[in-house]
User: Fold this.
Amino acid sequence: MSHYLFIQSQDPFTEIHTHHQFALIGQLHDAGHQVVVLLVQNGVTPARRDAKSDLFDDIVRRGVTVRADHFALMQREIGDADLKDQIGVADMDLVIDAMLAGHKVIWH
Amino acid sequence: MSDTKTLTFAFMEPPFESERTVTFFRLLDAALERGAGVRVFAYEGAVALAFANQQPHGNAVHDRDSAEEDHPLTKDWIAALQEKARSKGIGFEWINCGLCVDERGVNDVIDGCGRGGPPDLWRYASDAHNTLTIGTR
Assistant:
């Protein structure tokens, strides 16, 4: 079992590549690997409570750990209460801690 | 010092074009805050991040002069990270890909940033505890 951290900067509303990116995330999770996703930049937009993205909502439903970058949320005036219930808030420390722990960290 | 882990970052985004640049610098800062040594291999447009001749400008539309506008410059961000690393006694290295520098003409870089090539990226990645490559998209 491996540990993966995906830094998800692309959002499913404007970036076609997210289809494959989220598919990869889901497949690694289903294969039993520990997968964490940190949403950054516009990648935080599907985390809003009423945002509709089958791609994104599916990986959340399957139990992938998803965190949204506090700075990106602030820039877009998305408060903690505006997020979907399963989404936590994090910072760049999450990435550095993963790198220092030897996890596979991948930028999307 | 011998317990310090070094993280390598490969980056290719030019200054002032994308939010990725801000996220990248936040990562470097977070790494130093965690006590990790940092090595950056900058290539393609990112070789301009350390360009010594960057100049701020005012904002005539909003009637602000250069001082009031306080336009951020990436060379100053790099210098600030260098100072943070020095104060913490940890390493901070920055190498620009030489071919990318030549084609863009950004040969004048701030002190502490050097010139190299792909073998340096290989060396940085081989020696690092971990490596993150940030693509342009």
